[in-house]
Every structure is written in structure tokens, then in C-alpha cells.
Design a protein that fits this description.
- By secondary structure, this protein is α/β, with parallel strands linked by helices.
- It has one domain: UDP-N-acetylmuramoyl-L-alanine:D-glutamate ligase, CATH 3.40.1190.20.
- It contains twelve helices and ten strands.
- It has a ten-stranded mixed sheet, with helices on both faces.
- Helix 10 runs parallel beside helix 12.
- The longest helix is centred in the C-terminal third of the chain and has 22 residues.
- It is globular, with a radius of gyration of 18 Å.
- About 0% of the residues have low confidence.
- The protein binds ligand NAX and adenosine-5'-diphosphate (ADP).
Amino acid sequence: MQVVDLALAAELAAQGRAPTATRLEDLDVRRVWPVPDAPAHKYTRGVVGVVAGSVPYPGAAVLTVAGATATGCGMVRYVGPAHVREQVVAAHPEVVAGGSTQVRVQAWVVGPGVQDEDQSARVREVLQAAAAQDVPVVVDAGALDDVPDRVPATVVLTPHAGELARFLSARGVPVERSQVEAEPVRWAREAHVRSGATVLLKGAVTLVVGAGDESCAPVLAQGPAPAWLATAGAGDVLAGVLGALLAGVGARSDQPWSPGVIMRAVAAGVHVHGLAAAHANPGGPVTSPAVAHALPGVVARLLRPTGPRGRES
Ligand SMILES: NC(=O)C1=CN([C@@H]2O[C@H](COP(=O)(O)OP(=O)(O)OC[C@H]3O[C@@H](n4cnc5c(N)ncnc54)[C@H](O)[C@@H]3O)[C@@H](O)[C@H]2O)[C@@H](O)CC1
Ligand SMILES: Nc1ncnc2c1ncn2[C@@H]1O[C@H](COP(=O)(O)OP(=O)(O)O)[C@@H](O)[C@H]1O
């Protein structure tokens, strides 16, 4: 498929009829991507904190960390129980692991595979401290239950349709998974308006809804990714990708976060995650670790002037 830009966006905006949804393409993503400069060191590139995994789901922690490290960041700090720490460090020896959330990071990822009280307590600590410090938090899976009623747009919720239905129902908006699937824009917006969070609703097309700014339409719609990506752990990898990107963008700027910058950063992550699924095994099945494994190559191709779909030099 080739997408041809008819330059309708400016024309529609002039008529006061902005499109409901827009999509970041390769060039937009390249502009957002944090690329280290020559004097960079690991702390100027951004550190990601990860609270993921539990005894029943250690793999979710490993996959989240895999997504973050493969996207490119200065460092990942993993925070969780000893049993999971051992598995994370065995798979990713570059990760610094511990049990306390009292660490300095530029972005957090919380929730993949979180299903015990100790990890949930860490999630709540992170949500409280990060809001006060203007540090972004990607909130996935088990951590969605711990989100306070109102949060800033630096909190990025990443539910699939079932999780969004549960999130809204818990806030007095009873809705079924099938209804979310039928009207994803409506329900993603509802979750954003109710909570204040940036909402990233995962699916074949992934929607990002947050308060827009002048240069950013209210809904970004990324995809479609190959349906082979609908496999266990793919969302855990995505959460890591988003954390690494937010840490990298945050480390380069001393400005407060704006909702539009958050939206574009996470939509860029979704775009690259879908490309990694396509490149991991074109036209065939992929596993979540294979998606993470494909990420560095996809990022390198994206940053080359020919782009990921162009000829390789
Ligand atoms: N390797 C790992 O450690 C992985 C851990 N994961 C973690 O697992 C936890 C639960 O994630 P889910 O997305 O499953 O949670 P959900 O609670 O959203 O999904 C469970 C729903 O799927 C339904 N369901 C279960 N099995 C089904 C089947 N065979 N056919 C049809 N419907 C079925 C259940 O009735 C329930 O409604 C999360 O914390 C997540 O992060 C997942 O990410 C998968 C990989
Ligand atoms: N039909 C589909 N086509 C393409 N991508 C999909 C499809 N269904 C799900 N995905 C993507 O796969 C990932 C699944 O994430 P998630 O539902 O959180 O699974 P898990 O919890 O097992 O990691 C998301 O990135 C989502 O956008």
C-alpha cells in the first residue's frame, strides 16, 4: 500500500473541518526520535524505570525490558521481586535491578504482568511521585486498576479493548469489550476526558487520545500492524518501547511536558513497534521476543534518509 498525501489537512483546517484522526508516518517519526549526539552519556540519553512482572508472570518483565533496551535508552532500572530480578538480569545483563522505586529516571513503565500486592504498592508509589515531578508513566495491564481518579497527561494508559472496558466500568461508565471494539475513538476519548490521562488504545489500529495542541490533531491512529502481532507479550514489548522513547525525549528537553509532545512520542513508538513486527518475519508469524529483536534494525532504517521501506545503502 502506498499512502499519498493529498495535503487535505491544511485545506480542511482552513474550513474549520479538521480530520478526526491523523497518522504519523516515517518522516514524522524520524523528527520525534531521540538520537544521541557525540557528547552523550547514558544519563543524557534517558533512564527508564520498569515496575513489571510478578511470580506468575516473570516473562512480562523480561519482555518489557527487552522493548525498552532495544528501542535505545541510556539505562533501564528494573524494580521488582528478587525472583523476577534474577530472570531480568539473566536475560539483560545491562539492566540495573533493585527493589526500591526511590531511583532517578526520566520515564516509568508500570504494570505488565503485575499481579501481587508488593508490585501494586510500587506502582502506586511511582504514580504519586512521578505526577509531582512531571515524569511520564506508561501504565499497562495490572497497573490500570491503581490509577487515581484524575491524573496529568504525562500518565499514558495503554489498555487493550477489554482493559479499557474494565477501566471505564470501574469509573461508573459500564461498557463491554465489544462496544469498545465497535466504537474505539468514542471510548478512548471518554477515558481521556474522565481521567485526564493520555489514552493509547491497542488493537489492529492503535489510537492515541490526549489534549491536542495546535499542531496535533486530537486523535492519532497508527497502523494497521500485521495481525501476526496479536500474540502474547507484544503489548509488554510495546510498553517498554514507549518508556524508552519518553525517557529519551524527556532527557533532551528542560521544558515541561505538553500533551501534544506526549501523544506524538507514544504514537511514534506504536509506529515502530508495528514496523518491527512486519520486519521480524515478513508475511509470517512472529513472537514477542522476535519483535523486540527487530527493533534496533527498524530504528536504524527509519533514521536513514531512505527510510525503513526504502533501499538499504
Ligand atoms: N509472558 C508473560 O508473562 C505475559 C504476561 N501477560 C500479562 O498477563 C496479564 C493478563 O493479561 P490479559 O491480557 O490476558 O488480561 P485480561 O484480563 O484483559 O484478559 C483476560 C480475558 O480474556 C479471556 N480469556 C482468557 N482466555 C481466553 C481464551 N482462551 N479464549 C477467549 N477468551 C479468553 C478471559 O475470560 C478474560 O476476560 C497482564 O498482567 C499481562 O501483562 C500477557 O502480557 C501475556 C504475556
Ligand atoms: N489484529 C491485530 N493486528 C495488528 N496488531 C494487533 C492486533 N491485535 C493486537 N495487536 C497489537 O498487539 C499488541 C497486543 O498487546 P496486548 O493486548 O497488551 O497483549 P499482551 O498483554 O499479551 O502483551 C498491541 O500492540 C496491539 O496493538
